[in-house]
Amino acid sequence: MKGAPPAFDPRVVLGIVVFGAAAFLATLYFIAAGQTSGGSAGSGHAIARGLDGYAALVRLLEEEGHEVRVSRSAASLDEENLLVLAPPHSADGEEIAEIVSRRRYAGPTILVLPKWIAFEVPARDPVGAEDGWVYLADARPPQWVEDFEGRYATGLAPLALDGDGAAHWQMGARRGAMPDPGNLQVLEYGTVIPLVTAAEGSVLAGYYDDGGYYPVLDEAAGLPRADPEADDLDTDRWNFTVVADPDLFNNYGMADRERAALAHALIDTALEGQDMPIVFDVTLNGLGANRSLLTLAFTPPFLAATLCLLLALAIVGWRAFRRFGPPLAEARAIAFGKGSLVANSAAFTLRTGRLHLLTAPYARAVRQRIADALHLRRPDDAALDRAIARRLPGAPPFAELAAALDTAARPQEILRAARALKSLERKLVR
């Protein structure tokens, strides 16, 4: 007779297991990478591909060999790196000032001020826009700069230049045109040493003159090298650079080779000759992410629980491959053999509560086996006790044990007395 087919196709089961394992590993990867949500929402940040985004600058720095990272974690704001902040118009100026103040002895900071009011190109628009493209609707300085002035004296003003092709920005010997000369945003006032200027010396980008020792930036600004031994200079403080017009850094500006080279030069200048990571923050743009659960699992004090879980999984897997024994099979309701018959009878006796009826037959059976072992012709209790005393001095008399079994009433007492008789028999018969 041909066997019945399996309930499940082995190939289907194998495919389900492989797919589930792959999906689980992918989930762990995306959790660890912090890619559990869409990353290109909005514009004006380091991931955005629109005109007001900075994805092109990130790509340029990566191609030039820099260690570049886009951070969704607030922890990066206090790490040793070159931090690039590009907050939106809706940012909090006091919060930004607090971040900059905390970083003065952690690493250099570049603040790119927003200018453009942008909105995403509608999907129904006939221009054939790609994902993330935007329209630049208006140029407007951020209102939060007024709050920012409390700690860092900074004011912005629009500067309209003609579009006749004249040089609209300058950094040392570098010169070039801005992408939109009619909408420039410059620093109106502040204790800023200019690095990039526009017409009439207006400052497009510069670093704060705050008593720090910045020889690389001083050289880029055309200033004489300061004396590091001067008492009024803080050699441990890092520079704080402000880019007033974002078109020097954004994708709109990266369309020109000279402006791209200018942005790279500003980044290198802010690094002050140090080899450190460049981090573009997007938490101020609302793209921050909570700490990775996978990373948190391997961080004390949760590391101990994670190790215990991994150890338990390893033990379970090991026991799954090395079974305790043969698989369990359903037992018969009525088993074969004399032993099974006795077991069934005993269970029936217990259920009916007639265990006391077995005490006398059990005592007679034990008496006969002991008499046979001692070769007694008349196995009365007195003869048994004399023979037992000669064979096992100090052993309890048979008559005493049999009487205890006969007077036992409860199941526990009956079993205890029966075990005593069985123990005496085992000593004599062995």
Q: How many domains make up the 3D coordinates?
A: 3
* Helix-strand makeup class: alpha/beta
| Beta content | 5-15%
Mean pLDDT: 80
Distance between the termini: 53 Å
Tell me the series of helices and strands, N- to C-terminal: HHEEHEEEHEEEEEEHEHEHHHHHHH
Instruction: Identify the strand order in the major beta sheet.
Output: 1-13-2-3-12-11-10
Low-confidence stretches: none
Rg estimate, integer Å: 45 Å
Largest sheet composition: 7 strands, mixed
Number of helices: 13
- Helix content estimate: 25-40%
Sum up the overall morphology in one term.
rod-shaped
Can you describe this structure?
This protein is α/β, with parallel strands linked by helices and 430 residues long. The protein has 3 domains: 38-288, no CATH class; 289-319; 338-429, no CATH class. It has 13 helices and 13 strands. The chain has helices at 10-33, 55-63, 93-102, 145-148, 215-220, 257-270, 293-297, 302-321, 338-352, 359-374, 381-391, 398-407, 411-429; strands at residues 68-71, 82-85, 109-112, 116-120, 134-139, 155-159, 169-171, 174-176, 184-189, 192-197, 203-208, 240-243, 278-281. The strands form 4 sheets. Strands 1-13-2-3-12-11-10 form a 7-stranded mixed sheet. A two-stranded antiparallel ribbon has the order 4-5. A hairpin with a 2-residue loop joins strand 7 (169-171) and strand 8. The longest helix is centred in the N-terminal third of the chain and has 24 residues, at 10-33. It is rod-shaped.
